[in-house]
Amino acid sequence: MSKARCWTALLLALSLLLGGCWDRRELEERISVLGMGIDVAKGNPSLLKVTLQIPIPIKIAGSGGQTGGKGGGSPVRVMSSTGHTVLEAISNLQKRLNQKIFIGHARVVAVSEEVARRGLREITDGFRRDPEMRRLLWPIVVKKDAAHLLEVNPKLEQIPIVYIMSMIENGTKTGSIPAQTLGNFYIQDSSRTMQAYLNYMETHNDEIIWKGVAVFLEDKMVGVLPEPQTWVLNQLRDNRTGGDIVIPIPGKKGAYITVRPHFVRTKLKLEKAGDQKGSLQARYVCRLQCDLVEATFPLNFINDGVIRKYEQVIKQEMEKRAAKLISMLQKDMKSDILKLGLAIHGHHYRDYWVNHNWVEEFPRFPISVQYDVYIRRIGMEVK
Fold it and tell me: What is the DSSP pairing of strand 245-248 with strand 108-112?
């Protein structure tokens, strides 16, 4: 056989290894899901109710090269079905649709507080096994019905899920909302060194309100951290700034100042506690630089002493909030979402970790928080 024929035969054989797009499916042949809500079915607690928000391309402004959508009406369809599992409910919903459901474009998965308190591991198991499910989507807990979150129309975006997604993404950029993705939740839920949390939201008429974070112990929700404590958590855990801080001024009735954190740097110090062998204590030292953005009474920073005075006021308020956070996590929820166990596992594995059950030890572990506050700017003032 000639060389040319050998090369031809080899190329033909190699071409069999090229799969190409034999199993392709056109975009027009499937239904893309943008948001999913999971509730307990009313009247039958053994079933789950899964709600999907599905966009209608022809009704979205600008679709098909047009300047506006066609036909009027809502640009999304919200549909629900029930099942013993999430995937069974989606399969039951598939029977009512003319195209295949595709969840690879889902950006938000909402679960009701009732479902979260029962446990999420059985729900997320199917998500973890499905390669279509994005690890970067936003999982959230809703105070009441998750289905209602998908039905709310904020009127500031055509597609409600896009509004929720933008709300969370913009909050994470400013540091006021934790950047908690589905992938992060998987890591925390699987770890022996930390517990998980999710953003917590509430719906009111056509409004969606971020209310803090839902705290988990193992895979079950055990409580909610309100905004002030969530912002302290951001600072201690992830060096995130959090939101604006409104502080009452001692000795001045009705007097408040508002400061905006600008820079946060937290150091965790694990130190020996007392004389007992193998005992530890944790001390967080948080350096907080902030800008003064509002005051409800006349302020005159004529010297550095006045600035130092209000820095102490801010310091006391932040340490008070931090003490409440630690108390809620240790006494009420008994859940380490601070990643303190991860630090101990990494730095004191042999002398502490192997000799203690961290889940049982965390509620009584000594933790203190110290803030060092600096006012960077006081803004412009017209005399």
Answer: unpaired
* DSSP code of residue 45: T
Q: What share of the chain is helix, strand, coil (3-state, %, to 5)?
A: 35, 30, 35
Q: In this predicted model, what pLDDT tens digit does every residue of 175-215 receive, in sequence order?
A: 999 999 999 999 999 999 999 999 999 998 889 999 999 99
Amino acid at 350: R
Distance CA(217)–CA(251), nearest Å, equals: 41
pLDDT at 65: 46
The mean pLDDT value of the chain amounts to 89
User: Can you tell me whether residue 41 is helix, strand or coil?
Assistant: coil
Look-up of token digits 């302290």: 232
CATH top-level class of 227-383: alpha beta
The CA radius of gyration of the chain, in Å to the nearest whole number, is: 26
CA gap 185, 19 in Å, rounded: 35
Taking only the tens place, the pLDDT of each residue in 7-32 is: 888 777 777 666 666 555 565 667 88
Distance of CA 379 to the CA centre of its chain: 32
Q: Where are the beta strands (DSSP E) in the chain?
A: 30-32, 35-40, 48-55, 76-83, 100-102, 108-112, 138-142, 197-204, 207-217, 220-225, 245-248, 256-272, 280-295, 367-377
What's the number of CA atoms in the CB half-sphere (13 Å) around residue 245? 32
Q: CB neighbours (10 Å) of residue 46? A: 8
**How many whole angstroms separate alpha carbon 219 and alpha carbon 189?**
7
Domain regions of the chain by residue span: 30-225, 227-383
- Cα(119)–Cα(152) distance, integer angstroms: 25
Query: Whose structure tokens read 């550095």?
Result: 304
